[in-house]
Amino acid sequence: MAVKYPNVHVQLTGQDGNAFAVLGRCTAAAKRQGVSSEECRAFVNEATSGDYNHLLATAMKWFNVS
């Protein structure tokens, strides 16, 4: 499956692994690359609809995560 926004790079390794920190890093990176507020909300809604593993899987589905 292709990444939805491959131009949005999010560095998660070596960073705070708290779920709120992950969401913040993802949405900040998306906004810097011009992703709309509506799309950012859609990401947050999807990412928070499950457990922590679902959050990480959603981040990897939407963005270029390393």
Secondary-structure map:
Blueprint (H helix, E strand, L loop, with lengths): L4 E6 L8 H14 L4 H11 L4 H11 E3 L1
Helix pairs in contact: 1-2, 1-3
Can you walk through the features of this model?
The longest helix has 14 residues, at 19-32. Helix 1 packs antiparallel against helix 2 (37-47) and helix 1 packs parallel to helix 3 (52-62). This protein has three helices and two strands; from the N terminus they run E-H-H-H-E. The protein has helices at residues 19-32, 37-47, 52-62, and strands at 5-10, 63-65. The protein is globular. It has a two-stranded parallel sheet. It is of the alpha+beta class. The protein is 55% helix and 14% strand. The model has no long low-confidence stretch (mean pLDDT 96).
Summarize the structure.
With 66 residues, the protein is an alpha+beta fold. The protein is 55% helix and 14% strand. Strands 1-2 form a two-stranded parallel sheet.
Helix run count: 3
Could you give the order of the helices and strands?
EHHHE
Structural class: alpha+beta
How far the N terminus sits from the C terminus, by CA atoms, comes to 17 Å
Strand order of the largest sheet: 1-2
The total count of strands amounts to 2
Low-confidence stretches: none
How would you state the average pLDDT, rounded?
Answer: 96
Query: What is the CA-based Rg, rounded?
Result: 11 Å
* Largest pleated sheet: 2 strands, parallel
- Which band does the percent of strand residues land in? 5-15%
Q: How would you describe the shape?
A: globular
Helix content: 40-55%
